[in-house]
C-alpha cells in the first residue's frame, strides 16, 4: 500500500493523471513530464492501481471510478441543470450581477503580445469547451443548458498608452471594474468573458472570468492552462491550425449524469450517510474574531498570502511517505489543530471541495465542484498523528458520498442558507497542485492576485503546491477580522506545520503555537512594570508601607484638613487619628490583635470609617457585615470567622449575639473617645497579615471568605494614588462588604483628600445622588456600571453639569458605553472615565482610561492593562498561553493576590495555583474563571464567565448558591437559575417546578428568598415551568430556559 501511495504522489507531482474507465487504466500526461521509470512502474502495478481505485476511491484524490453515465456520448441538445446550477441561475436572475459568485483571473503580460493571437486563443478555448459558450434559457420545464453554436465572444480591449502615466493606474482600475461588474443574464449572455488592456508598448493586463453556473473554482486551473496553451500555439512559428483537441466528454455529460443521480435512490442513501456522519457536530464555529457578526454583513473578504518554503514541503512529503498519508490530508489536519488551539469547538466542520480531481474529467471545464462539511473530531487531546489518521480515514469514507449537492444537505438537515452566516461551515480548506504554465516565446506571464473578493465564509485556507514549495492564502471576512489578526494566524500555522513535520506524535496540546517574540510579549512585555509614585512612597522603605502608615503620614503633614465629611459632621485627620487610636487600643484589650477577625456591622456614617481604621491599626482583620443582609447569612459568616469582637450599633446588636465573641455597641463620637488612649500604637503588622475577610458567593451554596493581605492592598493604594487626583473629594459610595470601599477610603486618605459620606436613601436614588454630587463638590466617584448608567439616564441634557466632577472609576460589572453614558460624558468633558477590573481575590488587577471623544469610545471597552506589580495571563484549556486575540481563561498573578479563602485550604488550593511563568520561585496565580483575550495593543478584553457566575450591582454571584437556597423551599420540586440581560443590564431569572397552583406563590417565594439572601441575589423573575429542560444526557439545559415575560417580574 505504501508503495502505491508513493507512486500516486509522484504522479501528482509530475502532473500525470490516472483514471479507470471501463476497467482499463488510462494515463494523462498533458505536460509531457512522465519519465520512463515512472511509466514502467505504472505498467507493472496497473492491476493494483485499478483495484485500489475501486476499493478505496478516496485514498488518493487523483483516482476515481467514473460515473456509468459518462460512458454515454455527450448529448447534443439542451440539458437540464443540476440543483446547484439552478441555485446559481436564480441568484443571477434576481441580482443580474456577474461579479458576485467568482473572482476574475488576472495576469500581467510583458512582451510583444499579438492581439489577434489573443482573440483567436479565446475563440479556440470556447471551441474546446462547450460549457463556456452555453446559454441557460428558461423553458416550461425550467432552466436548461443550451450550447451556443458559434464560438465568438466579445473581448473587451482598451489601449491606454495615450493616457498620462500619472492617471493610467486609476484608469486601468476603472476599466477593470466597469468590465467586471456588468450585468449578467444567463438566458442571453455567455458565462465567459475576456478583457485585454494595453498599458504600454510591452505591458498588458489580461483577465478571464466565468460565472459559477458554468465553471467551478478548481476548473479555473484548467481554463488558464488551456487558454495559454492556445495562445502559445497561435504565437509560435509552427502554429497548430484548427481548434484545440476536445476532451473525451463535455460538461453536458456530467450534468446529465448528475441530474439522473439527483432522481435516484443513491441520493437518498447519501443523505442518510450525511445525517449520521454529522450528528453531534455544531453548525456554527466559534472563531476569535475582532468584531462581532452584524445583521447586515458586507461579505467583503481579504487575503493574506504567505509561503512555506522548500524545506517545509520536503519534510511534509517525507512524513507522508513514512506514514502512508497525503500532503492535502496533512495540511488539513494542521489547519484543524490550528482552529482547535484558537478555542473553537473540539468537534468542528470544515468546508472541503470535491469533484475537481476526477482523472476521467481531466481536461474538462465545468460545474463539477461540490462543497461538503468535513467533520474533524479533536476531543481528548489526540496526538497529531492520530488526527492525521482520522482525517485520512474520513477522506476515504466520504469519497463514496461526496456527490450530494450541498443545497440538498442544507434542506434535509434543516440548515438553510442565511444572509449573515454560511450554513454548516464558516471555515473552508482548499488544496490544489500547480502545474507549469505553457512557455510562450517572448512573453512573461505573471498572475496577479486579487486582494478582495465577496465571500460568505468567515475564514479559509487555500494551499497551492508546486514542485518545490507550498503557497498559502488565508481568506478572511473583513466584517469580522483585522488583517493583522489573520497575519498572526499565518505565522502560527507555519510554526505548527514545522513542529508536527518533525514531531508528529506530539499531543495537540503540546504543539508549539507561539513564536518566541509573541510568547515574550504575552508573558513579560505586556505585564506591568514600576510606574511613577509620589516621592515619599518611592523610598526604600515604601515597599513595606501599610495603608495605616499612609494615613498617619497625611495626618502628620495636614492635621487640620477634613478627612471625613458626614453631613454637618466633619472629622479632620488629627481627630481621625485620635479616635481610631483610642478604639484600636480597646480592641487589643479585647483580644483583637494580629490576624484575629473583627466583625463590623455598622450603619453608614463617619464612625463606621473610624472603626474600620481602628481595626487595621489593632492588627486585626475586619469582616464587613451588611446590616441589610438576612440574619441567617450574617450568622453563617460569624460562625465561619469566629471573630474576637463584633462592633455594631445599638439597633443591630440583638441579631448578632455570639456567646464566644465580645459585642461592642457604638453610636457616637463620645463613645469612641471613651474606648482608650489616643496615643499612636506601635503594633507590628507584617505585610503578609490579613487586612480583611470579605465574603463572596460560593459555588458550594455557602459563602466563602476572601482573605486579603496588607501588602496586596498597599500595592493597590499606591497605584491608585500615583494615577489619580491629588487631594480628591471622594464620595464614599460602596458598602464595606464591597471591596471597592477599601479603595475609595484609603486612596483618598493616602492622597490627603476628603471622604464624603452619602446616606443610604440618597445613595440609591439617582436624582438625589446627582444633587448630592453637585452640592458637595464631589471630584471622584467609584461606582459599578449599573449605578453609573442610572445616573446617566437621570441626568438631563439641559441641566447644569456637576462642575467639580473629574474622575469616575467603574468597577464590579462589565462596562457598556451606552448612548446615555455618551451624552453624560459629553456634558462633562473634564471628567475622565476609568474602567477597572479585578475579582475579590485580587481586588483591582488592570484598568483602562477611556480617551478622546465619548462618541468614539467602544461599546464594550477593554479592561486595560495590569496595574503595577500585577501579572495577567490568558491560558488555553491546556494551561498554555493563548495567542494574541484568542480567548482563554484569565489568570492573575503578582503582588495583588489574596492569601486565599478563610479556613478553606482545599478550595484555596484549587483556585490559587503555582505560577509557572513567574521569575520568582513560589509565586502563585489565581484562576478567575473569566473568559478574556489580549487585543493587538496588549489590552485585556473581558468576554464573560466560563462558569455560571455573574455580577449584579458590582457583587459577584454564584447561581449555585441561589439555586441551593431556592431548592430548600418545601413547595419547590425543582429549580434552575440563569442570568438574563436586558437593556444592557444583568438580572437573575429563576425557573421553578411546583405542583401548587396558587397565583400568590411567586410573591411568597420572593419574600422567602429575601429573608435568606441579600437583595441583589433575589431573582427579579420567577418563571413557572412544568419541567426543567434537559439535554439528551439528562443534564440541565440552561440554554433552553425561556426568556422571562414582563408579568413574571417583580
TrEMBL record:
GO terms for biological process: amino acid activation for nonribosomal peptide biosynthetic process; secondary metabolite biosynthetic process. Residues 552-902 form the AMP-dependent synthetase/ligase domain. One of its GO terms (molecular function) is phosphopantetheine binding. Residues 961-1035 form the AMP-binding enzyme C-terminal domain. Residues 84-522 form the Condensation domain. GO terms for cellular component: cytoplasm. The keyword Hydrolase does not apply. Keywords: Phosphopantetheine, Phosphoprotein. It comes from the Bacteria. Coiled coil: none annotated. InterPro entries: AA_adenyl_dom, AMP-bd_C, AMP-bd_C_sf, AMP-dep_synth/lig_dom, CAT-like_dom_sf, Condensation_dom. This is Amino acid adenylation domain-containing protein.
Amino acid at each position: 500500500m505504501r508503495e502505491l501511495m508513493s507512486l500516486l504522489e509522484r504522479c501528482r507531482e509530475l502532473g500525470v493523471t490516472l483514471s479507470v474507465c471501463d476497467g482499463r487504466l488510462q494515463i494523462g500526461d498533458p505536460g509531457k513530464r512522465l519519465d520512463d521509470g515512472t511509466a514502467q512502474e505504472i505498467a507493472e502495478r496497473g492491476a493494483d492501481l485499478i483495484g485500489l481505485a475501486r476499493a478505496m476511491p478516496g485514498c488518493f484524490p487523483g483516482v476515481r471510478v467514473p460515473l456509468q453515465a459518462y460512458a454515454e456520448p455527450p448529448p447534443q441538445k439542451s440539458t437540464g441543470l443540476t440543483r446547484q446550477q439552478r441555485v446559481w441561475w436564480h441568484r443571477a436572475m434576481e441580482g443580474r450581477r456577474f461579479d458576485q459568485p467568482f473572482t476574475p483571473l488576472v495576469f500581467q503580460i510583458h512582451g510583444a503580445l499579438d492581439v489577434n493571437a489573443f482573440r483567436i486563443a479565446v475563440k479556440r478555448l470556447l471551441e474546446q469547451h462547450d460549457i463556456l459558450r452555453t446559454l441557460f434559457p428558461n423553458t416550461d420545464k425550467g432552466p436548461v443548458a443550451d450550447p451556443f453554436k458559434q464560438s465568438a465572444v466579445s473581448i473587451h480591449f482598451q489601449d491606454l498608452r495615450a493616457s498620462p502615466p500619472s492617471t493610467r493606474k486609476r484608469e486601468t482600475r476603472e476599466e477593470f471594474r466597469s468590465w467586471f461588474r456588468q450585468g449578467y443574464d444567463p438566458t442571453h449572455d455567455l458565462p465567459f468573458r475576456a478583457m485585454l488592456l494595453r498599458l504600454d508598448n510591452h505591458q498588458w493586463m489580461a483577465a478571464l472570468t466565468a460565472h459559477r453556473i458554468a465553471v467551478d473554482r478548481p476548473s479555473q486551473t484548467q481554463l488558464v492552462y488551456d487558454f495559454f496553451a492556445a495562445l502559445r500555439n497561435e504565437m509560435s512559428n509552427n502554429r497548430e491550425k484548427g481548434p484545440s483537441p476536445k476532451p473525451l466528454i463535455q460538461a453536458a455529460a456530467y450534468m446529465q449524469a448528475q441530474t439522473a443521480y439527483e432522481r435516484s435512490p443513491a441520493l437518498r442513501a447519501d443523505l442518510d450517510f450525511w445525517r449520521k456522519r454529522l450528528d453531534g457536530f455544531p453548525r456554527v464555529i466559534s472563531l476569535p474574531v475582532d468584531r462581532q457578526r452584524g445583521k447586515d454583513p458586507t461579505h467583503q473578504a481579504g487575503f493574506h498570502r504567505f509561503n512555506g518554503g522548500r524545506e517545509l514541503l520536503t519534510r511534509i512529503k517525507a512524513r507522508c511517505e513514512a506514514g502512508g498519508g497525503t500532503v492535502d490530508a496533512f495540511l488539513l489536519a494542521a489547519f484543524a489543530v490550528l482552529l482547535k488551539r484558537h478555542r473553537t469547538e473540539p468537534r468542528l466542520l470544515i468546508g472541503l471541495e470535491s469533484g475537481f480531481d476526477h482523472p476521467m474529467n481531466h481536461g474538462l471545464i465545468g460545474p463539477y465542484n461540490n462543497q461538503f462539511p468535513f467533520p474533524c473530531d479533536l476531543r481528548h487531546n489526540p496526538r497529531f498523528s492520530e488526527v492525521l489518521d482520522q482525517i485520512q480515514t474520513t477522506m476515504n469514507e466520504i469519497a463514496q458520498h461526496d456527490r450530494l449537492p450541498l443545497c440538498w444537505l442544507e434542506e434535509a438537515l434543516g440548515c438553510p442558507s442565511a444572509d449573515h452566516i454560511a450554513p454548516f461551515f464558516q471555515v473552508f480548506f482548499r488544496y490544489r497542485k500547480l502545474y507549469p504554465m505553457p512557455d510562450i516565446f517572448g512573453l512573461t506571464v505573471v498572475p496577479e492576485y486579487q486582494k478582495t473578493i465577496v465571500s460568505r465564509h468567515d475564514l479559509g485556507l487555500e494551499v497551492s503546491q508546486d514542485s518545490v514549495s507550498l503557497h498559502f492564502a488565508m481568506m478572511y471576512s473583513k466584517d469580522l477580522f483585522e488583517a493583522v489578526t489573520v497575519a498572526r494566524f499565518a505565522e502560527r500555522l507555519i510554526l505548527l506545520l514545522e513542529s508536527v513535520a518533525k514531531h508528529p506524535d506530539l499531543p495537540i496540546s503540546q504543539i508549539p503555537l507561539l513564536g518566541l517574540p509573541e510568547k515574550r510579549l504575552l508573558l513579560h512585555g505586556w505585564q506591568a512594570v514600576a510606574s511613577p509614585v509620589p516621592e515619599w512612597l518611592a523610598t526604600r522603605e515604601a515597599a513595606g508601607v501599610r495603608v495605616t502608615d499612609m494615613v498617619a503620614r497625611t495626618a502628620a503633614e495636614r492635621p487640620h484638613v477634613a478627612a471625613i465629611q458626614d453631613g454637618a459632621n466633619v472629622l479632620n485627620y488629627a481627630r481621625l487619628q485620635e479616635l481610631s487610636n483610642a478604639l484600636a487600643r480597646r480592641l487589643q484589650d479585647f483580644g483583637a490583635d494580629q490576624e484575629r477577625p473583627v466583625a463590623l456591622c455598622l450603619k453608614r456614617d463617619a464612625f463606621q470609617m473610624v472603626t474600620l481604621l481602628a481595626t487595621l491599626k489593632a492588627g486585626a482583620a475586619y469582616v464587613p457585615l451588611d446590616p441589610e443582609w438576612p440574619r441567617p447569612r450574617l450568622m453563617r459568616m460569624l460562625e465561619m470567622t469566629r471573630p474576637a469582637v463584633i462592633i455594631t450599633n445599638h439597633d443591630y446588636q440583638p441579631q448578632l449575639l455570639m456567646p464566644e465573641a465580645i459585642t461592642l455597641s457604638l453610636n457616637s463620637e463620645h463613645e469612641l473617645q471613651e474606648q482608650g488612649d489616643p496615643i499612636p500604637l506601635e503594633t507590628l503588622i507584617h505585610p503578609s497579615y490579613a487586612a480583611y475577610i470579605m465574603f463572596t458567593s460560593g459555588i458550594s451554596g455557602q459563602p466563602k471568605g476572601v482573605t486579603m493581605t496588607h501588602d496586596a492592598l498597599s500595592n493597590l493604594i499606591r497605584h491608585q494614588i500615583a494615577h489619580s487626583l491629588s487631594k480628591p473629594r471622594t464620595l464614599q459610595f460602596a458598602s464595606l462588604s464591597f471591596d471597592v470601599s477599601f479603595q475609595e477610603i484609603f486612596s483618598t486618605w493616602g492622597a490627603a483628600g476628603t471622604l464624603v459620606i452619602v446616606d443610604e436613601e440618597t445613595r440609591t436614588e439617582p436624582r438625589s445622588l446627582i444633587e448630592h454630587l453637585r452640592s458637595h463638590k464631589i471630584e471622584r466617584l467609584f461606582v459599578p456600571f449599573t449605578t453609573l448608567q442610572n445616573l446617566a439616564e437621570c441626568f438631563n441634557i439641559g441641566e447644569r453639569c456637576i462642575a467639580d466632577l473629574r474622575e469616575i472609576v467603574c468597577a464590579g460589572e462589565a462596562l457598556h458605553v451606552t448612548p446615555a453614558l455618551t451624552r453624560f460624558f459629553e456634558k462633562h468633558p473634564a471628567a475622565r472615565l476609568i474602567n477597572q477590573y479585578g475579582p475579590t481575590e485580587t481586588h483591582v488587577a488592570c484598568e483602562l482610561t477611556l480617551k478622546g471623544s465619548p462618541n468614539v469610545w467602544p461599546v464594550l471597552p477593554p479592561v486595560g492593562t495590569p496595574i503595577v506589580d500585577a501579572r495577567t495571563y490568558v491560558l488555553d484549556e491546556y494551561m498554555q498561553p493563548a495567542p494574541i486575540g484568542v480567548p482563554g481563561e484569565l489568570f492573575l498573578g503578582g503582588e495583588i493576590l489574596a492569601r486565599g479563602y478563610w479556613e478553606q485550604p482545599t478550595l484555596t488550593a484549587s483556585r490559587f495555583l503555582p505560577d509557572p511563568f513567574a521569575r520568582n520561585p513560589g509565586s502563585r496565580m489565581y484562576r478567575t474563571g473569566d473568559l478574556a483575550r489580549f487585543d493587538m495593543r496588549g489590552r485585556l478584553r473581558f468576554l464573560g464567565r466560563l462558569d455560571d457566575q455573574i455580577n449584579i450591582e458590582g457583587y459577584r454571584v454564584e447561581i449555585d448558591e441561589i439555586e441551593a437556597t431556592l431548592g430548600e423551599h418545601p413547595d419547590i420540586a425543582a429549580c434552575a437559575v440563569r442570568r438574563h440581560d436586558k437593556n444592557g443590564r444583568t438580572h437573575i431569572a429563576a425557573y421553578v417546578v411546583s405542583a401548587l397552583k396558587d397565583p400568590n406563590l411567586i410573591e411568597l417565594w420572593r419574600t422567602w428568598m429575601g429573608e435568606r439572601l441579600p437583595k441583589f441575589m433575589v431573582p427579579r423573575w420567577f418563571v413557572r415551568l412544568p419541567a426543567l429542560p434537559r439535554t439528551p444526557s439528562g443534564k440541565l439545559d440552561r440554554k433552553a430556559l425561556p426568556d422571562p415575560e414582563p408579568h413574571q417580574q417583580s
